[in-house]
Amino acid sequence: MKIKVTENVQVEKEVEVELPYYYEHDLSDLYEPNSIYGKIVSEDKKFTIHERENSDGFMSYEIEEEDSDGSYFKPEHKSTQKAFESAKQRAVEFLNKF
């Protein structure tokens, strides 16, 4: 008897990137916008801005300094300095309301 088996093989490769490197991860669903904007500044350090809007229109922001694990060096996550700075400006404006 023969059966088909699917294998997922993780491959490690070197990629050439220019730092700082900017990325965006869109986690939105049908009802709530939800994105992570990031700036990788070194091989092991990144800054993230997590911007969410709930179904009632209320915004929330999480800003973190984290270890970089290289998971965002993929074409589907590549972003720009302008997008990161725009998210940062929205977060600052949000915090200035208090």
Summed over residues and divided by their number, the pLDDT gives a mean of 92
Shape descriptor reads: flat
What's the total number of strands?
4
Q: Name the beta content range.
A: 25-35%
The residue ranges in which pLDDT falls below 50 over 5 or more consecutive positions are none
Give the structure's gist in a few sentences:
This protein is an alpha+beta fold and 98 residues long. It has one helix at 81-95, and strands spanning 21-26, 34-42, 45-53, 59-66. The longest helix has 15 residues, at 81-95.
Question: How would you describe this protein?
Answer:
- The protein has one domain.
- 15% of the residues lie in helices and 33% in strands.
- The protein contains one helix and four strands, in the order ββββα.
- Strands 1-2-3-4 form a four-stranded antiparallel sheet, with helices on one face.
- β1 (21-26) and β2 form a beta hairpin.
- The radius of gyration is 17 Å and the shape is flat.
Topology:
Layout (H helix, E strand, L loop, with lengths): L20 E6 L7 E9 L2 E9 L5 E8 L14 H15 L3
Antiparallel strand pairs: 1-2, 2-3, 3-4
What keyword list fits this structure?
15% helix; 98 residues; four-stranded antiparallel beta sheet; flat; alpha+beta; single chain
